[in-house]
């Protein structure tokens, strides 16, 4: 029984069958990659996991509880964090403030009216945020405006914000999209480091095979909204069906 | 029956002014992404094009009539318009009489020019700025424009009568045995509006220019990638939108005499119309304009006001609230427009 | 001190000094000098500065922090005023129940309007608030003032009549709004120093005290985790959602708080002058609040107060400059020159004050998107880049902060 | 730079200035709101509070012209205008009681809030001892209340609502202008003569206080003649188009339309009514007629041709041929180039009446001035013999019934006087139910301090 169990999920947009009978099981403490050509339904699947879309049929269970019908913030509070394809951070705020917000969310839940104590007086929160920033090597940028960071730093900041909440499942939506080779490698190293340091389950949607094969413990290949095959990286690499449907085109 | 038809006509007539202003607002918003609070002022400027032309045509030379006296007891100065002096009282009088329809001709280039100047001189610096800034700067512009008009024309309304030939009423129900007497000029206004709306839609539908603009409204970046200078065309759209608002104003004069704040009177309503129709949807703007016009007319009837006292005061806003809560993007709005 | 860091404490102290010494600061010119026209230190205008400052501070909590642009905030001001006058009519002229009731009633109204309007965002939210406010105005101006059920007294404005119950009124208490016998409109001190005159008004000091309290509260709120969340709403609602935070209650709370600030301002307005007119609910009045906030600098602490002061100064001082005054200003010049200058200046002052205001808005929005506060910062930077040692900022308007709203 | 802002604080200023600023500060503690109503310097300041922005700005501008003219005449400038025809002869062109008259102006914006703020600023800052002006009843009542509290005299400008000297009357407030009741009383007999006593009237009424009181007055006066009121429809103030209110009139069986509108509302509703051909219609075998109870020439200009033949009432018109009116029209016309409006007239007269009352009372104290105005009878101010009634501070004088002129000779020649209704016919008891009944009271006069 995996930490995330997707069973028989269907999603139609008008005449288009975006997801057709998707079954997926992500085992705890693994890195599970979902790959597939453009339009295979990867993003739709991801959106169904985080509450942005509701599947027409099927179930999505996280740690034994259904996520269907819950809002994104409720699902986050259950322990699922999401990193976006283009980094979604609070651009108007400083790096430090960006880090503090998830810390509050983790401690106080989805809403708390703490309007009179100052942020600075919340010592544990501040310490937590600074510690995390140090881990991702951004302590020198703590007072910069998030919007003025480089793209790589934005990605790292977003990752740090997610990790700070100590999620049980981290969803990564093409974390290296549009990155230069060197940056991609840095990200891979960062993710490896993250994985080594803590018990965390990562589900990653990715285009870049280099990333997938460097990180993944298991891979699911989606094609036209249906899982084609699920296996270990080694097996996937040699699978002729996958080669035909996906890798063949990419190669 | 007659009464209901009459109110529908009234609604269509009011609605055509709303629809024309809302159409221009939507064009500007859809193409440029700018919330233009000065759009009501453009409507007002259009009306004052007619006032100005009327004044110019009535420019007079004075002769002294010794037989009569003015209010101070001095000999009366009789004014004769130059046009009457030049073309004789018959032709000259007719020219003055037709001042409003004639203004349409001069209003088009003037309004396009004003629109062009506004876009190039001011609005273009605000494309990347928050909507609040756009609202504020165009609101400031609206105040400035209306104060300038007030400086030259005063605060009182100024009569711009229709030509004598188009005065009076016509019984449009006669063919069906109904008694529906309706002012001729209001019919003219309605038909004029329909023609303008039709013109704008076919312009967007059937010309290459229109196609590019429509594509740009749907996805600005993609069109930009095709190497089309979309900005230039959008500037022209601003001129077009200004002309539409201006023409709506020119022809509105004979219905209700223009004054300097008529733009502000229409502004809030037109925004409600645009939002009810759905930001960025041209058919939505037209539909909502006519719909709200008709609703307003029916809410004004004795029947409605005795059923719910004060309904005529709040109907438009009530409808706006209900529509927005039940149809989040208005009647025909597109997803993702203006939601941040 | 008081839970503020040093910078904020300095700001609060500066504001406190400025408000408490306002009767001096706003009357810099001797009464019989030509410049006395520009003196603003008389009770009514000073009260207005402070009350509209409170209003703008409250509006800024909503708009400056969350970015939700309400175009109907004047409705809460109006509701607050009506509530206060009704308290005067029913209970007594004591301002305490009046102000409390106006805050509570405005709070209730904002729960209702906020709950409905906040279901939409962007311009849809603005139009919803506008629609609610215009409805309130129409209802107050005519529908709710009919003789059978007269809640607002319509065009004339709600006021206290001799035959009103005033059940708590006792003999010996003033027949005007008062704080336990301390009449709001009285001056406790009138000081004449040489050619200068300074008036110290009871009502003004009550308003000033309340301003300092609510300003202090707003600093605390800006620096609090709650304030941070509100700024996060403005910055990126999507991220906030995916960070496990529900933006709705945060925005609703901000809406209610800012509605209550507006109600407080309305209550104070009625306490200084016990008449509530429907015009203060019109959409143009809401627009004015928006203008104040943006003109001063949305999202900054002091900006809205400056913006409010700026607009009220214009409305009350510029509108009173007539041709007669102009002629006297320029009377030292040769006749032709004098007439020419009067001719040039004439369209912009007196009845032309709207024109000047409109032009100023356009200039400020175009060149100083951060409002007057940004102007002050630029000035500060200019001074520094000239190599001079930056002075310790005494005036918050010239406060050289890097970014106006960084919580540190 | 010259001294233009001299106020009643003048004396203190001069003494203090002599002490060259080094003198010990003079400290007054006072519980007073207004400063003493006793100008001790060489001049006296009046506050002219008129709409300078908003839809009534033109009317406000005309009021301001009249005030400037009045100040000029009081200070001995110009040709003296009505000072020469006024029945009281105490004003001699040396200002008021020898003090030069100065003035400050403010913008009411036609909003009661703004008007009060501007009046307060004139009282508190400029030391104005009398406030006058305004172009709407809401503003007049709001400012009148303020002046009562502040202890200064308020001389109302254009305000036509019964309430100003009815249920909202104040001891410190005075109105020269006529009111809704008087319009009704003056119009009714003329309407009967012109249109007969068997008429069905349809009222369109601006949905706010002034509209209601006028509608009530006109309906009462016409019903007393035998007319029937078929319907009364309230129209929102913000209406710009009245077509949907006019259309039902056609099928209502009414043969007279009464437009209880003023300003922009009046111009638009009248224009719309004429547009819909109401005036060419025959109903119940009679010509359909339109009545506009309160006319204003400035606004009539906006209605253009549509005004022709329409009957209404007005406080005063420049074409009157009495000596007072002629003198006023002459000095106003020569100064500004066009004839004055009724708003200008009432404002000019109010200023003169105030100056006269102060002089006769020999005091600036509001209660003394009020006493001098109460029951004051005068003539030579354009409306014949006039009484400032003591009980409600309303002037009783002849009311003009006018009609839109068919063949105007000039752009100002829009109205012709049909009848001058004598004051006796429009007089009502001070406790008339439309004026607050027995409960209405002026209250105590307030001298300030």
What is the compact description of this entry?
The complex is a heterotetramer of chains A (251), B (340), C (408) and D (449). Chain B is mainly alpha-helical and 340 residues long.
The N- and C-terminal alpha carbons of chain A lie at a distance of: 35 Å
Oligomer: heterotetramer
For the sheet with most strands of chain D, the description reads: 7 strands, mixed
Largest interface chains and counts: C-D, 62 and 73 residues
Low-confidence stretches of chain D: 1-36
Q: How many domains of chain A, as an integer?
A: 2
In CATH, the homologous superfamily of the largest domain in chain A goes by the name: P-loop containing nucleotide triphosphate hydrolases
CATH class of the largest domain in chain D: Alpha Beta
Query: What is the H level of CATH, i.e. the homologous superfamily of the largest domain in chain D?
Result: Response regulator
Low-confidence stretches of chain A: none
Q: Which sequence of strands runs across the widest sheet of chain A?
A: 6-7-8-3-9-10
Strand residues, percent of chain A: 15-25%
Using the coordinates shown, work out and report the CATH topology of the largest domain in chain A. Rossmann fold
Order of helices and strands of chain A: EEEHEEHEHHHEHEHEEHH
What is the structural class of chain D? alpha/beta
CATH class value of the largest domain in chain A: Alpha Beta
Supply the number of structural domains of chain D. Answer: 2
Mind summarizing the main beta sheet of chain A? 6 strands, mixed
Radius of gyration of chain A (Å):
19 Å
Q: Given the C-alpha coordinates, what overall shape of chain A results?
A: globular
Pfam family, one (chain A): BCA_ABC_TP_C
InterPro entries (chain A): AAA+_ATPase (IPR003593), ABC_AA/LPS_Transport (IPR051120), ABC_transporter-like_ATP-bd (IPR003439), BCA_ABC_TP_C (IPR032823), P-loop_NTPase (IPR027417)
GO molecular function (chain A): ATP binding; ATP hydrolysis activity
Protein name (chain A): Amino acid/amide ABC transporter ATP-binding protein 1, HAAT family
């Amino acid at each position: 029984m995996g930490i995330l169990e997707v069973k028989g999920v269907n999603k139609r947009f008008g005449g288009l069958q975006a997801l057709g009978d998707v079954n997926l099981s992500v085992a705890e403490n693994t890195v599970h990659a979902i790959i597939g050509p453009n339009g295979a339904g990867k993003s739709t699947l991801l959106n169904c996991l985080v509450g942005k879309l509701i599947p027409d049929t099927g179930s999505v269970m996280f740690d034994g509880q259904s996520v269907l019908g819950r809002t994104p913030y409720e699902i986050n509070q259950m322990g699922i964090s999401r990193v976006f394809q283009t980094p979604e951070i609070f651009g108007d705020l400083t790096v430090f403030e960006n880090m503090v917000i998830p810390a509050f969310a983790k401690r106080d839940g989805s809403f708390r009216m703490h309007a009179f104590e100052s942020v600075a007086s919340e010592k544990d929160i501040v310490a937590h945020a600074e510690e995390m920033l140090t881990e991702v090597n951004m302590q020198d940028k703590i007072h910069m405006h998030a919007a003025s960071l480089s793209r790589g730093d934005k990605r790292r900041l977003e990752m740090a914000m997610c990790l700070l909440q100590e999620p049980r499942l981290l969803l990564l939506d093409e974390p290296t999209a549009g990155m230069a080779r060197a940056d991609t490698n840095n990200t891979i190293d960062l993710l490896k480091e993250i994985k080594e340091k803590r018990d965390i389950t990562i589900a990653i949607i990715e285009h870049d095979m280099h990333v997938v094969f460097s990180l993944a413990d298991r891979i699911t290949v989606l094609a036209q909204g249906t899982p084609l095959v699920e296996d270990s990286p080694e097996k996937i690499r040699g699978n002729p069906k996958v080669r035909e449907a996906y890798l063949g085109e990419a190669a | 029956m007659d009464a209901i038809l009459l109110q529908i006509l009234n609604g269509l007539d009011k609605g055509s002014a709303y629809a024309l202003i809302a159409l221009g607002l939507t064009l500007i918003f859809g193409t440029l992404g700018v919330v233009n609070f000065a759009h009501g002022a453009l409507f007002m400027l259009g009306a004052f094009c007619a006032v100005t032309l009327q004044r110019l045509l009535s420019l007079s030379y004075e002769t002294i009539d010794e037989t009569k006296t003015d209010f101070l007891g001095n000999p009366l100065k009789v004014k004769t318009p130059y046009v009457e002096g030049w073309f004789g009282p018959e032709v000259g009088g007719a020219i003055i009489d037709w001042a409003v329809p004639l203004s349409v001709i001069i209003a088009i280039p003037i309004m396009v020019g004003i629109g062009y100047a506004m876009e190039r001189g001011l609005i273009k610096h605000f494309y990347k700025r928050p909507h609040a800034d756009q609202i504020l700067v165009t609101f400031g512009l609206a105040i400035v424009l209306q104060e300038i008009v007030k400086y030259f024309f005063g605060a009182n309304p100024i009569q711009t009568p229709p030509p004598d030939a188009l005065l009076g009423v016509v019984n449009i129900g006669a063919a069906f045995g109904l008694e529906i007497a309706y002012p001729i000029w209001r019919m003219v206004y309605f038909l004029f509006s329909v023609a303008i709306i039709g013109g704008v839609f076919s312009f967007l539908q059937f010309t290459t220019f229109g196609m590019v603009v429509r594509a740009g409204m749907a996805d600005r970046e993609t069109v930009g990638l095709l190497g089309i200078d979309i900005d230039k065309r959008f500037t022209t759209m601003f001129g077009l939108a200004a002309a539409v608002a201006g023409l709506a104003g020119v022809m509105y004069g004979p219905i209700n005499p223009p004054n300097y704040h008529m733009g502000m009177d229409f502004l809030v309503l037109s925004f409600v119309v645009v939002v009810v129709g759905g930001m960025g949807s041209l058919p939505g703007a037209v539909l909502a304009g006519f719909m709200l016009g008709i609703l307003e007319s029916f809410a004004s009837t004795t029947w409605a006001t005795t059923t719910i006292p004060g309904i005529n005061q709040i109907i438009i806003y009530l409808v706006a609230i209900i529509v927005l809560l039940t149809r989040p993007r208005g009647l025909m709005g597109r997803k993702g427009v203006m939601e941040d | 001190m008081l839970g503020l860091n040093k910078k904020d404490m300095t700001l609060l102290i500066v504001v406190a000094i400025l408000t408490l010494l306002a009767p001096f600061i706003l009357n810099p010119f001797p009464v019989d000098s030509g410049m006395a026209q520009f003196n603003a230190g008389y009770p009514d205008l000073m009260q207005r500065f402070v009350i509209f400052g409170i209003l703008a501070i409250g509006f800024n909590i909503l708009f400056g922090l969350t970015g939700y642009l309400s175009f109907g905030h004047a409705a809460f001001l109006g509701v607050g005023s009506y509530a206060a006058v009704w308290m005067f009519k029913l209970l007594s002229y004591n301002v305490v129940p009046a102000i409390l009731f106006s805050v509570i009633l405005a709070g209730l109204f904002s729960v209702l309007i906020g709950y409905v309007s906040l279901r939409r965002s962007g311009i849809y939210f603005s139009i919803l608030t506008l629609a609610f406010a215009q409805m309130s105005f129409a209802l107050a101006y005519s529908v709710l003032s009919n003789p059978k059920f007269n809640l607002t007294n319509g065009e004339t404005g709600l006021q206290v009549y001799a035959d009103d119950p005033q059940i708590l009124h006792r003999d010996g208490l003033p027949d005007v709004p008062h704080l336990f016998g301390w009449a709001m409109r009285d001056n406790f001190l009138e000081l004449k120093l040489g050619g200068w005159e300074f008036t110290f008004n009871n009502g003004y000091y009550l308003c000033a005290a309340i301003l300092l309290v609510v300003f202090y509260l707003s600093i605390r709120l800006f620096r609090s985790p709650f304030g941070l969340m509100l700024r996060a709403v403005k910055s990126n609602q999507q991220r906030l959602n995916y960070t496990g935070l529900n933006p709705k209650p945060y925005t609703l709370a901000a809406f209610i708080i800012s509605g209550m600030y507006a109600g407080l301002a309305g209550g104070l307005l009625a306490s200084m002058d016990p008449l509530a007119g429907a015009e203060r609910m019109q959409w143009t009045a809401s627009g004015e609040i928006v203008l104040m906030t943006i003109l001063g600098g949305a999202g900054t602490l002091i900006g809205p107060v400056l913006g409010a002061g700026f607009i009220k100064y214009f409305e009350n001082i510029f509108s009173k400059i007539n041709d007669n005054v102009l002629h006297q200003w320029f009377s030292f010049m040769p006749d032709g020159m004098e007439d020419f200058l009067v001719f040039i200046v004439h369209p912009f002052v007196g009845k032309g004050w709207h024109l000047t205001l409109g032009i100023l808005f356009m200039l400020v929005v175009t060149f100083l998107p951060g409002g007057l506060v940004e102007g002050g910062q630029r000035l500060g930077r200019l001074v520094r880049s000239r190599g001079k040692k930056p002075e310790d900022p005494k005036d918050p308007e010239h406060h050289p902060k890097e970014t106006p709203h960084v919580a540190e | 730079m010259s001294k233009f802002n001299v106020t009643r604080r003048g004396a203190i200023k001069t003494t203090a200035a002599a002490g060259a600023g080094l003198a010990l500060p003079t400290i007054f503690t006072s519980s007073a709101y207004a400063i003493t109503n006793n100008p001790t310097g060489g001049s006296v300041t009046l506050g002219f509070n008129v709409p300078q922005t908003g839809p009534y700005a033109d009317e406000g501008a005309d009021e301001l012209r009249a005030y400037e003219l009045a100040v000029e005449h009081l200070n001995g400038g110009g040709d003296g205008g009505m000072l020469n025809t006024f029945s009281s002869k105490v004003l001699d062109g040396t200002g008021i009681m020898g003090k030069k008259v100065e003035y400050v102006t403010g913008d009411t914006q036609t909003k009661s809030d703004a008007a009060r703020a501007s009046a307060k600023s004139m009282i508190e800052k400029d030391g104005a001892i009398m406030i006058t002006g305004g172009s709407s009843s809401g503003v007049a009542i709001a400012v009148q209340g303020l002046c009562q509290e502040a202890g200064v005299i308020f001389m109302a400008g254009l305000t036509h609502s019964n309430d100003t000297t009815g249920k909202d009357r104040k001891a410190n407030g005075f109105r020269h202008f006529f009111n809704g009741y008087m319009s009704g009383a003056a119009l009714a007999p003329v309407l009967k003569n012109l249109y007969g006593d068997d008429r069905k009237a349809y009222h369109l009424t601006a949905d706010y206080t002034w509209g209601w009181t006028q509608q009530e007055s006109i309906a009462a006066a016409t019903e007393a003649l035998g007319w029937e009121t078929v319907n009364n429809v309230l129209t929102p103030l913000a209406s710009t188009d009245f077509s949907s209110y006019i259309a039902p009139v056609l099928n209502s069986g009414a043969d007279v339309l009464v437009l209880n509108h003023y300003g922009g509302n009046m111009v638009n509703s009248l224009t719309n009514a004429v547009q819909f051909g109401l005036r060419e219609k025959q109903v119940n075998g009679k010509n359909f007629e339109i009545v506009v109870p309160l006319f204003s020439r400035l606004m009539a200009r906006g209605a253009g041709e549509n005004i022709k033949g329409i009957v209404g009432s007005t406080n005063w018109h420049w074409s009157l041929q009495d000596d007072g009116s002629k003198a006023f029209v002459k000095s106003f016309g020569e100064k500004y180039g066009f004839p004055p409006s009724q708003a200008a007239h009432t404002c000019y007269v109010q200023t003169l009446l105030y100056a006269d009352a102060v002089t006769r009372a020999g005091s600036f104290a509001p209660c003394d001035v009020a006493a001098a105005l109460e029951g004051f009878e005068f003539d030579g101010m354009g409306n014949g013999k006039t009484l400032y009634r003591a009980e409600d501070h309303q002037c009783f004088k002849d009311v003009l019934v006018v009609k839109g002129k068919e063949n105007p000779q000039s752009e100002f020649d829009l109205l012709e006087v049909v009848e001058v209704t004598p004051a006796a016919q429009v007089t009502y008891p001070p406790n008339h139910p439309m004026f607050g009944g027995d409960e209405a009271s002026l209250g105590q006069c307030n001298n300030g301090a």
